[in-house]
Amino acid sequence: KGEINEISPAHVVIESGNIGYFVNISLNTYSFLSDKSSCKIYIYEAIREDAYVLYGFMDKQERQLFLHLISVSGIGSNTARMILSSLSVPELEDVIASSNVNILKSIKGIGSKTAERIIIDLRDKVKKSSEDVILTSKKDTEAKNEAISALVMLGFNHATSQKVVSKILEEKPTLPVEQIIKQALKML
User: Fold this and answer.
1) 105, 111 in Cβ contact below 8 A?
2) Would you say the pTM of this structure is higher than 0.90?
3) CA 151, CA 170: separation in Å to the nearest integer?
4) Which end of the chain is more exposed for a tag (fewer CB within 10 A), N or C?
5) Residue scoring higher pLDDT (2 or 153)
6) Which helix (H) or strand (E) holds 167?
7) Which residues, in sequence order, are CB contacts of 117 under 8 Å at separation 6+?
């Protein structure tokens, strides 16, 4: 937890206790942090012979998926970060649960054998953790889609509306549709 001194799509420098920590991040975490001046992120520390490397995640779920990915033979930290940059956590869980090899193969650095290995190794692990989230995510998705549709009908751009609604739901995931729309109108 600390102040953000520097941020790019690949890393963030967080000052905590007068020490700057260089933390590697995914694009999803970058999107989450890009408009903040301070943050709390979850860290994984990779200790190698030649370096101590920090990887940061916006939530525990993303970090857990990262740990699952690096447990797969042939997937290193940077490849796992590339996967998490290409797909959001729910998207990746859906891809693994539905055994969609083609989407995994479309990610840079992932071949068909690696994609199959990811699915085989993680299918059971991801299903267990995502089953708890499925019930609440359906409600969240309905509220999100309804809010975006309402904003589009009011004349706002679909992509912009989607970004604003996503940002609102990140901060307050249980907000009713009416409140989401009201807050979005203030931000647009």
Assistant:
1) yes
2) no
3) 18
4) N
5) 2
6) helix 158-171
7) 72, 73, 74
